[in-house]
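#onboarding

Welcome to the new folks! Below is a worked example of what a typical request in this channel looks like: someone posts a single protein sequence, and someone else replies with the predicted structure as tokens. Don't worry about understanding the tokens yet, we'll cover that in week two.

Example request:
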Amino acid sequence: MADITPAQKAAGAASSELTDKVVFYFVDHGMQILTAIVLMGAGVFIARWVGNLVHRWLKTKAFDEPVSSLIVKVVKLLILGFIGVMALGQMGVQITPLIAGIGVAGVGASLAMQGLLGNLVAGLTIIFSKPFSIGEYIELLGVYGQVTDIALFSTTLLHADNSRVIVPNRKIVGEILHNYGNIRQLDLTAGIGYDADLTRALALVNELLQHNTAVLQEPAPVVGIAALTESSIALAIKPWVRVEDFVSAKAAIYQAVLEGFRAHGIDIAAPRRDVHLLNPPT
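Example response:
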């Protein structure tokens, strides 16, 4: 049998000493460890119960589901973190230096991540002040779109071409924001000749809007004369539609108006110019 080297003897002694320390620790702190385990189990139950309670309360305040889920997760994490520190204290860990270290690390992290924390604070401000909700159409800082997600650090806007704009929350809070809500008003025009039957044309446009399923009847569409141009009477056609129907409804209404005017013999005006020859040829 090969002789055991001094290094192997030292390693074996260190391993045996570590094993003895672990065993003695569990023997001396068995009740504290059991108490910590029970405390963590109770903490999971309390976090789940409080989370469900907060979720029901947020539903009564009409918060969006993604926002409600985000708030509930944050509340659960805070409760679990607090009870976790208490459990470490029960196991004999000195939590005062731990809390002090977390505080120092927090200060350093806050200085290093000022922009990130600014987005976090702004995100919480948006969540609780609710200047807009998911599904509404907003415009600010030269960007616009339908709100599809409100997170702690950013807000996502959807364009009509399905492209997305990610806006940091600190760019939203404190800025002038135009919130269109869940509906938008189309601003369409159609020109008819001065000899056309104006009353008939307006009645036809109103009828076409009533039969278009994308057009909302409340608020009522606005139809009237927009301007009197050199060669036509410009009709204003301003129906209300849902945000998601804004692009498709515009094309459908223009097509229906064009086909309706042609079918009923209403003159669609074209630019005209009268040319007078001062010296006509003989």
